[in-house]
Amino acid sequence: MKQSTKTSPSKPVEAPTNRGTSNEMEIAKAEKGLKVYSYSCVCDSCVCGESGESCEQNTRIRDHASEISRILAKCPDIATLIVGPCQSKITCHKTLLGFKSEYFDGLCFGGFPSSESGEIRMEEEQPEAIAAFVSWLYTGRISSTCTVAPAALWVLGDKLRSPGFTNEAMHFLFRIYYQGTFITAETAGFSYDNTTSGSKLRLFIKDVILNEGPLSKETELCSDDIESWRALIRQGGDLLVDISFEGSFNNFICDDDQRMAWYYQNHHKYLEPITTRPIEDFLQGKPREGTRNI
Ligand SMILES: [Zn+2]
């Protein structure tokens, strides 16, 4: 049975327990002190105890490293992101920003004034969230010490039009719910408030609620938690419609992992297609042409 642990967008996320596959332990050992090792993975191989070469997270990190090493070797220009009301400065290679984010591709290579000055103002964003994004750009990982909730990182990735980052945040969510966290009203409300109909985050949250019933007796909610759900349901909106049409808030499907949103065979439902300009465009310094839908 699941243990009731809490995550919410506004509070630090507890680092998931590292299940200790050999590769993760090597990474953790190599980077001890830097504290940038990734959360552990729940792909097919890792769940079956194989991990290593066939682990999907390892493959993603390897591919990411290979792409960015090509970019960093050829494109030295740096952009300065000026983030939040305190105007924290975070620097990053311009081409890396553009290659992994449609938003930054437009700003850095779309002929805007910021293309020239190298300064990009992001006053409405949180420095911690942007730092997590930039850290992912360089490492392909979201640090398990990141204090921003993965649902908030998913929303940031969506805003920056970076499907690679939203997918990494989604893998973090798979891990959190796999390890036995019950969804909170705060996370559900935040996810619905900050996404539109048809988003992968909404789909995931809806399926977690339908399969794991936050109001079922198994979750052993305290009165404050119940009150939070009551307040959220009282607001109505898309969340209530989505859940009401397909089931209820108090189903609990035990012993049927395959139906769970975090089960590895279901991951594909919640991941975005990766779209970017070809890496050669960036390596050859080609400007961006128009806007594409992703
Ligand atoms: Zn894996």
Automatic annotation (TrEMBL):
Q: Which CDD domains match?
A: BTB_POZ_ZBTB_KLHL-like
- Region listing for Disordered, in residue ranges: 1-25
Give one Pfam hit by family name: BTB
| Positions of the BTB domain | 77-146
Q: Which domain of life is it from?
A: Eukaryota
InterPro entries (alphabetical):
BTB/POZ_dom, SKP1/BTB/POZ_sf
| Compositional bias per record (Polar residues), positions renumbered to this chain | 1-10
Q: Please give the name of this protein.
A: BTB domain-containing protein
